[in-house]
Design goal:
This protein is of the alpha+beta class and 366 residues long. It is 16% helix and 33% strand. The protein has 7 helices and 26 strands. It has helices at 24-36, 53-63, 73-76, 79-90, 107-113, 127-135, 138-141; strands at residues 15-18, 41-42, 66-71, 94-99, 117-120, 180-187, 193-195, 200-204, 212-213, 225-230, 233-238, 245-247, 250-251, 257-260, 265-268, 271-279, 289-294, 297-301, 306-309, 312-317, 320-324, 332-334, 337-339, 344-346, 351-355, 358-365. The protein has a 6-stranded antiparallel beta sheet with strand order 7-6-16-15-12-13. A 6-stranded antiparallel beta sheet has the order 18-17-26-25-22-23, with no helix packed on it. The two termini are 42 Å apart.
């Protein structure tokens, strides 16, 4: 695969990215996001054919202002990555370690990295928030120029998972008879419902500043976000809030409209809202039963909008059932892929779910 961000070739202050080529599918999206956010960053795709590889790496590393090491299990086993880290230390470079894996460092590597700033991907909800922490570093800030919002970013998608292209099960339903009646937001912590009857609805911390107030939560800004409706289309806008607005686990740019669909999650500070469209059920003549099957028995999932099961949340929307990570206490996996806070995955029959030590299989019983 190739990275959409060309390696930096100018004369300004820049970042040298050290990574293992086997991790390219995970590292390139980070490089693309950093370049989109204005970072001047060089990585070894900038080596011209015919150049002496080691000399080019050494020259670029010697001239950089910040050395960023993407740390994974594979990079720690790479002799080249270890040599680059040692060279950066010997040259007195400003170093930041980005841990994409929660690795156990060898004593030698622990001695080298113990006094260096390390940022762990697992501590953040999204890659964007992970990198926002990186940008707080003063040396990194000096390597940033103008943003490049049009730069393509190919976010990492683990093999075998393609949520947007999965098909919704429609057994027992005549789709032609179904139509949206009204839309609402479900407040996960309280179970309250916000009916979206207005064309513009602002949500915030108090009634003086917002149309709807979620009171008592200081992580929510006074006028945090706005939901807009044009005919049957809905969008969410972050009003430059202090703690950001997340849509399906991704940080939104302030003041931009982002379309929302049935089954989406919207996070305002620590509060999570689920977006629903209600549907007429005139065409439903026999609904299939949905169950979570485990070694200790079967859990039946009813028609309630939200079911909390063993620390995880299953959302019953008009487009199907979604597994959503609504907790930061337990790690949640679907088919071996971790879901971070606010992320969702449409469930299909025979999906394997694991939370903590418990394992479930999602089954549809006709």
């Amino acid at each position: 695969m190739r990275c959409s961000a060309a390696p930096y070739e100018g004369r300004g202050k820049y970042i040298f990215a050290s990574y293992c080529h086997e991790d390219a599918a995970r590292v390139y999206p980070c490089i693309e996001l950093m370049a989109r956010d204005g970072c001047r960053i060089w990585y070894d795709e900038g080596i011209i054919p015919g150049d002496e590889w080691q000399e080019t790496i050494a020259d670029r590393l010697a001239a950089c202002d910040v050395f960023v090491a993407f740390i994974t299990e594979k990079s720690l086993s790479s002799h080249n990555c270890r040599r680059e880290i040692n060279f950066a230390v010997q040259r007195g470079k400003k170093i930041v370690s980005l841990f994409l894996d929660d690795v156990v460092l060898s004593p030698g590597m622990e001695m080298i990295l113990s006094s260096i700033q390390g940022i762990y991907r697992s501590s953040f909800v999204t890659t964007e928030m992970f990198l926002l922490k990186l940008y707080e570093n003063e040396a990194i800030a000096q390597c940033r120029g103008e943003r490049r919002p049009d730069l393509p970013v190919n976010l990492y998608s683990p093999p075998g998972i393609d949520d947007d292209k999965t098909m919704t099960l429609t057994v027992g339903i005549t789709q032609g008879d179904l139509g949206p009646k009204k839309s609402f937001l479900y407040i996960l912590s309280s179970g309250k419902r916000i009916d979206l009857e207005k064309n513009v609805l602002s949500i915030g911390r108090n009634r003086e500043n917002a149309d709807y107030a979620i009171e008592g939560d200081r992580t929510i800004s006074r006028r945090h976000a706005t939901i807009k409706r044009i005919y049957n289309k809905y969008t969410v806008v972050d009003n430059d809030s202090l703690n950001h607005t997340l849509l399906n686990g991704k940080v939104l740019e302030p003041w931009t409209e982002n379309e929302i669909s049935d089954g989406d999650t919207i996070c305002l500070g620590k509060e999570m809202l689920l977006f629903f469209k209600e549907y007429d059920e005139a065409g439903a003549y026999r609904m299939p039963e949905h169950v979570l099957e485990a070694e200790d028995g079967i859990i039946r999932i009813g028609n309630d909008p939200v079911s909390s099961v063993s620390g995880m949340t299953i959302m019953n929307s008009g487009r199907g059932f979604y597994l959503i990570n609504t907790s930061t206490d337990e790690k949640l996996f679907c088919n071996g892929v971790q879901l971070f806070y606010g992320e969702k995955r449409r469930l299909q029959s025979e999906d394997e779910i694991m939370i903590g030590a418990r394992k479930f299989t999602w089954r549809i019983v006709l």
